């Protein structure tokens, strides 16, 4: 029985691959149930954001079988997904989760949103009865470590998100954003945050392009 963390992120996979294997909140519980009932995992949690999809599990499964599950659950061939996947086991998996939670593995170093996203993943796994003593303790300890890191270091002194960085770059390029129009692609948390930063910068018109009208 091993503790395993595997998935893809912005450093290993292009956007189209990350989009294909992302889990929306409405799919997470079903996926966790399948992973536990059909694949023999003892415990599992799924962290899925615009920049990463990662599965944490306490399982007897080998990594290759878990990658096959991830691919087939999104109607991909395992061969097409494997080149983008990384995996960590036991102590390396623990270290990886803590790095992610502290913002050390983010596109923007130290960005604070990821900790909230991991807490959401923890809650979804709890609601699905997918957590046991191993992952439950791991996530709780991770939250404590991430809080201590932000308290005791300067990583959170100037909180910067991907959304804030994008708007800052737009202001450098275009100067004032007043009376400008922005096209936002997608309707996830980062896009919503970007829209708020754009509004604060004086932008008055936003066009949202998304796959579903409901989310837009």
Brief characterization of the structure:
By secondary structure, the chain is α+β, with helices and mostly antiparallel strands.
Structural description of this entry:
- The chain has 216 residues and is of the alpha+beta class.
- The protein has two domains: 2-152, 2-Layer Sandwich (Beta Polymerase, domain 2); 162-209.
- The protein is 48% helix and 18% strand.
- It is built from nine helices and six strands; from the N terminus they run E-H-H-E-E-H-H-E-H-H-H-H-E-H-E.
- It has helices at 15-20, 25-37, 63-72, 78-81, 91-101, 113-127, 133-152, 162-174, 189-200; strands at 2-9, 41-48, 52-59, 86-89, 181-185, 205-209.
- Strands 2-3-1-4 form a four-stranded antiparallel sheet, sandwiched between helices.
- Helix 5 packs across helix 7 (133-152) and helix 8 crosses helix 9 (189-200).
- The longest helix is centred in the middle third of the chain and has 20 residues, at 133-152.
- The chain is globular and about 55 Å long.
- The chain starts with a strand and ends in a 7-residue tail after the last strand.
- The mean pLDDT is 91.
CATH architecture of the largest domain: 2-Layer Sandwich
The N- to C-terminal Cα distance equals 43 Å
Q: What is the radius of gyration computed over CA atoms, rounded to a whole number of angstroms?
A: 18 Å
Helix content class: 40-55%
| Major beta-sheet overview | 4 strands, antiparallel
Number of domains: 2
Please write the string of helix (H) and strand (E) elements: EHHEEHHEHHHHEHE
CATH level 3 topology of the largest domain: Beta Polymerase, domain 2
- Average pLDDT rating: 91
The parts where pLDDT drops under 50 for at least 5 residues are none
Number of helices: 9
How many individual β-strands? 6
CATH top level assignment of the largest domain: Alpha Beta
User: What spatial form do the alpha-carbon principal axes imply?
Assistant: globular
């Amino acid at each position: 029985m091993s503790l395993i963390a595997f998935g893809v992120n912005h450093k290993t996979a292009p956007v189209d691959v990350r989009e294909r294997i992302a889990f929306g909140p409405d799919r997470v519980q079903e996926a966790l149930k399948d992973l536990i009932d059909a694949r023999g995992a003892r415990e599992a949690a799924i962290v899925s954001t615009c920049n990463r999809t990662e599965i944490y599990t306490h399982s007897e499964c080998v990594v290759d079988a878990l990658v096959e599950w991830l691919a087939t659950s999104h109607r991909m061939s395992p061969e097409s997904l494997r080149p983008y996947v990384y995996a960590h086991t036991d102590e390396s998996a623990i270290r990886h989760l803590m790095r992610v939670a502290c913002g050390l593995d983010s596109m923007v170093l130290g960005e604070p949103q990821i900790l909230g996203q991991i807490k959401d993943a923890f809650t979804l796994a709890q609601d699905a009865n997918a957590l046991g003593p191993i992952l439950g303790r791991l996530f709780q300890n991770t939250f404590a470590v991430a809080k201590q890191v932000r308290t005791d270091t300067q990583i959170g002194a100037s909180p910067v998100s991907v959304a804030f960085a994008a708007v800052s770059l737009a202001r450098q390029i275009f100067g004032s954003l007043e009376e400008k129009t922005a096209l936002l692609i997608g309707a996830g948390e980062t896009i919503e945050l970007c829209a708020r930063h754009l509004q604060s910068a004086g932008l008055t018109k936003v066009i949202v392009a998304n796959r579903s009208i409901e989310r837009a």
